[in-house]
Amino acid sequence: MSERPVTSRPSDNPSDTPVALDARLPATGTGRDAELPQAEVDTRQASLWSDAWRQLRRSKLFLLACAMLAVLTVMSAFPQLFTSQGPIDNCDLSNSRQPPGTNGAWFGYDIFGCDYYANVVYGARVSMIIGLAVVGGAMIIGVLLGALAGYYGGWFDNLVARLTDIIYGLPLILGAILLLQFLAQARGERGLFEVSLTLVLLSWMTFMRLFRSSVISIKDTDYVAAARAMGATDSRIILKHIVPNALAPVLVYGTIAVGGIIAAEATLSFLGIGLQLPAISWGLQINSAQNYIRSSPHLLFFPSIFLSVTVLSFILLGDALRDALDPKLR
Amino acid sequence: MARYIARRLLLAIPVLIGASFLIFAMVFALPGDPIRALSGDRPLAPAVQQQLRDQYNLDDPLAVQYGKYVAGLVQGDFGTDFRGRPVSEIIQERLPVTMKLAFVALLFETVFGLTAGILAGIRRKSFFDSLVLLSTTLIVSIPVFVLGFLAQYFLGLRLGLFPIAGLNDGFRSYLLPGFVLAALSLAYVARLTRTSLVENLRNDYVRTAKAKGLTPMSIVGKHTLRNSLIPVVTFLGVDLGVLLSGAIVTEGIFNIPGLGRAVFDAVRSQEGAVVVGIVTLFVFVYIFFNLLVDILYAALDPRIRYE
User: Fold this and answer.
1) Interface contact B160, partner A, CB < 8 A
2) How many contacts does A have with B, using Cβ atoms within 8 A?
3) Does pLDDT of B198 surpass 60?
4) What's the ipTM?
5) ω into A99 cis (within 30 of 0)
């Protein structure tokens, strides 16, 4: 057992026996030879993202968007922090459509005489859930299909391309109306799940196209060829090399798309085809406000402002991310 | 060129068939019974129901229904709605309204979008440029139906500048809905023009033109703009198809009896033939303009070669 003291002081004896060297490396793992490539890999992986982060921290728009989204996230997770009343607490029909300021109600009262501020605050949850869930789902489908289509090409690529063309041909709102009507009849319900599923099925194509083209451009790079030469399997090449490098455009588009999806949900609910009462959604609130635009415009304004600010926050965040992640624009 | 067009036409066929079948399946695979819905509280006599089912092929399997529908479509027969009115008649009546609306919107996009984009692109980082960037970001963030109501309330009700709804004031009735319909694309056109112009102003030929002593006016007007407008023209072409379908929301808000309203009402009352007819028309228009733009693109930019 004479190796032990040697391993703890490697600098003492540079010309070790092969046995001692072999034993030392896995045991301590901190030999110079082991450390170097490790550090190199770390800095290289971090460079795009740490560069981006450095630029993002200086961007005022990014900070503004983050602050607004932080507020909105807290609002959708814990609406109680913003209002002491539930959306249907203390409703009084005699207060119906009273303007802001009546009885100290900041946003006035809705048609049923419920506190409008509480209602608008509680509306954030649906929008955030649908926005994030739909983009998450569409991103997973898009990345998966895009990776397979871009990497393997051939008949699968063609099939996905035709499918994409077909769904692109259907206008989003029109397609969503049809699909939602269909899903609602088939499942006997028109709730969060049906609306989200509809929007996922109609919005994955751009993710697919973005990811596919990234994959195609990365597929022929030297480091992928090197990985293949070293015997890496297809799944390892896709997961370890291609996906992390092709993800940036998808993330940027995804952030902006959250805003678009939130607007689409509100539009569908507004048309009476999305969520149904008693769900609380800004689209539904605007829908019931439309008949009172002359006498009670406040019913229209508050959900509209919240909705637009939410969409704006995601668009600003996406813009900032794109500026930071796309080196061509610097 | 001819081969390229032929190839694109061939590629458009499966898309058209796929899209129309998808629409057809979604509409006609619905579990509800449209005939029963039609008759309301007092059920029709079974014989009448059966006759209606036969007339609209409701008892056939989906693929057969679709086949019969396409066979009729090829001969220009869009089918009839449940009151016996031909769908082609509905389309003939509604299409001009929607076309006018889309045309007004396109005009707004071109005039205001291009002007804003060009001015911002020429004076990059000026106050006007920041104003265009800011206002386009804001417009993009406001959902169309919200914008519609805001315009209706402020420009129509408060200021009384425009008619609020309906079509009773002739051309003036189209202005406000046309603007709302155009707003989103207008913002994109402005941004696209600006970016494209800024990129092109960096090119060598601009420096050469400047060195020759051309005025900034003629550099932009004669040289840069031509190249910068290629992506804008293609965007406008594709957008015409988008505008037609975007009319669903706008026509609803401003109470305009166009195709968008017709298709929306038809979805709600399960008038399958009307829905499929109009939506297929939308898809056809969209694909047609896409095709047209692709060909135009190749014609406008000599660097693009046909395969």
Assistant:
1) no
2) 108
3) yes
4) 0.80
5) no
